[in-house]
Amino acid sequence: MAHSDPPADPDPARWTVTLTGAVADPQSVRASDLAALETVSAEVATGCEGETTAPDRWRGVRVGTLLDRSRPRADASHALVSSADPDFACGFDLNRLRDALLAVRLDGDPIPTERGGPVRLLVDDADCWERIKWVSRIDVRTEPPTEDDTARDRVPADD
């Protein structure tokens, strides 16, 4: 299983998450501006493959908040969430993704790059490969992403 290297420039003041695709109002939001939206906290353990880790305290914005701002089309049903690693993305049912957290803080501080900062996707009951580090893009779609769109076999090193 391959692991990704962290991005070269993870500065939250310059890092953007773009929400595009089957939406009426595409959005690009700086990581530093995500915290200005309605934020929530969640305790999530991020260990993989049988690792037992204590839950961490994450804070961020629900993906649904950004979806509401971008107004997905009525026929939108899925999304492809991409990492800054150009070879890593994961497809989701839009209803499941709506409740996911785009985390921007870990234990009260900006998320360290090695832990997936500045923006990390945390999905309830997620498989390891679905907790995406370095989120850079959410592409809303009218059909499920194909296996060619995703990267289940390329899991960024998790912590």
TrEMBL record:
Annotated Oxidoreductase molybdopterin-binding domain residues: 6-145
Q: What is this protein called?
A: Molybdopterin-binding oxidoreductase
One Pfam entry name: Oxidored_molyb
Q: Which organism is it from?
A: Haloplanus rubicundus
Q: Which sequence ranges are marked TM in the entry?
A: none
**Gene3D superfamilies attached here?**
Oxidoreductase, molybdopterin-binding domain
UniProt-listed InterPro entries = OxRdtase_Mopterin-bd_dom, OxRdtase_Mopterin-bd_sf
